[in-house]
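Workshop exercise sheet. Pairs work together: one partner reads the sequence aloud, the other fills in the structure field after running the prediction. Swap roles for the next sheet.
Pair: D.N. / O.F.
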Amino acid sequence: MNIELTLHETRVIGCLIEKEIATPEQYPLSLNALTNACNQRSNRDPVLDLDETEVQQVVDALVRKFFVNEHGGFGSRVPKFQHRFCNTNYGTLKFTPQELGVVCELFLRGPQTPGELRSHTARLCRFGDVSEVEAVLEQLAQREDGPYVVRLPREPGKREARYAHLFSGEISGAEESAAATGPARTGEPDDVARGRLAQLEDRVAALEAEVANLTKLVDDLTAP
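Structure field:
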């Protein structure tokens, strides 16, 4: 893979992908809307504080890389932007809806566990359980035109390993850890723990959906 993006570039692309899927009626995005999306206090890690000039500079760099273009429509009063990063007629990079949801959330929130990804992608795609997320991560890690994700060393005291995207370059130590520890294990010690985990995941997914609805309402009220 010969793509290497900065943090700000992945944030811009991630926001455009997210809004295209979650709020298509507001897509493409104006510079103001894109700046607000990049600086959201929720659903973002790290939280950024970019101004419109900085976002415009990132957009200009992505335009030169053919990952973003300006969308001009009849009667449009302000420039609006859309991504050409993947799943378009302008490039060869194609993802399934589930792969795209995972990549988008890794762009927006950084490294995450399969369980976190299942909850965080609820607005973008559907996963039946954590094993489906793991299968998609495995696909992204083994694609011939990739790899696009890698498993990170498991943190002390953590049950699940986190995964990171590779669109910003290789991550030192990640491949060695994956080879040494083998596939990530997410099995619970007993049926009670599994039931509790499922309940927690459902509650988190419901909260994520509620936050998404509130975010959409705020975006509607503040849209130019």
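Discussion prompt: Residues 109-207 form a domain with the Arc Repressor Mutant, subunit A fold (CATH 1.10.10.10). What would you look at next?
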